[in-house]
Amino acid sequence: MGNPVSRASLGIDYKLLRRIPYLILLVKYGINDKDYVVINLTRLANDIGTTPQNVFKIINRLAEEGLIIKSTVSGQLAIKFTQRASEALQFVIDTIRHYLDERLVIRLVGHVVSGLGEGGFYMSLDGYVKQFVEKLGFKPYPGTLNIKLKPEYVKYRLYLDALPGIYIEGFSNGVRTYGGVKCFRATIQGLPGAVLLIERTHHGPDIVELISPYKLRDKLGLRDGDEIEVLVTL
Question: How far apart are alpha carbons 16 and 123 in whole angstroms?
């Protein structure tokens, strides 16, 4: 097994660990650190085995401890994670990773679909390319490969929203502002690459955009409709 994980090396307050089960449950409902998500107190209460009133108290406690931020969307209670919550979840991932002495992997499976043709433009922008090289260790082919996930894999894609990932900062070229991108290293049918979670996108959670040093369609001989497997490393 790997070396023990120290508090200092991961910089986490161990008092937060008692809140991890609640955070993991919220991840199940799509809560993340980017967007406010409406929550159903009754459904949460059924999962925990308590009352909606107690769930409301738990939500307030998590907010008081700086783990979530509350808001309203269309008159309904909505929440999102704070950076502190994301760091706590990452701590759990790192701890398990050290214990198992291996990287954790999320498997995504879907079918190749055509995108809007914008990937080549965005992947050629210096503001993005320099950060990809620095943070991912490769210069991406100027284009993205889009896959539409099978329904049973969408929930795993949503888990990624709540995890820190590798953040590519947004930037401005003086004429236009470009949004940030969160990404995760991945292997795509055995080839190196990354999954992109783009802040400004028209796609739903069932669409995943991939980058790689290679032109994936040519390298893997892919056409629209072909099934593809992506292994995301955390």
Answer: 38
Is 170 annotated in a binding site? The answer is no
Q: Does residue 137 have a known ligand-binding role?
A: no
Question: Of the candidates 66, 100, 134, which is a domain's last residue?
Answer: 100
Residue located via tokens 């320099």: 130
Model confidence, pTM: 0.60
Does 91 share its domain with 125?
no
The reply to whether 145 sits in an annotated binding site is no
118 is in an annotated binding site: yes
Confirm whether residue 102 is marked as ligand binding. no
Query: Do residue 91 and residue 190 come from a single domain?
Result: no
Q: Which of 55, 57, 59 is nearest to 46 (CA)?
A: 55
Which H/E stretch holds residue 7?
helix 7-10
Q: Is 217 annotated as a binding residue?
A: yes
pLDDT digits (tens, 9 = 90+) for 137-156: 999 998 899 999 999 998 88
> Is 57 marked as binding a ligand?
no
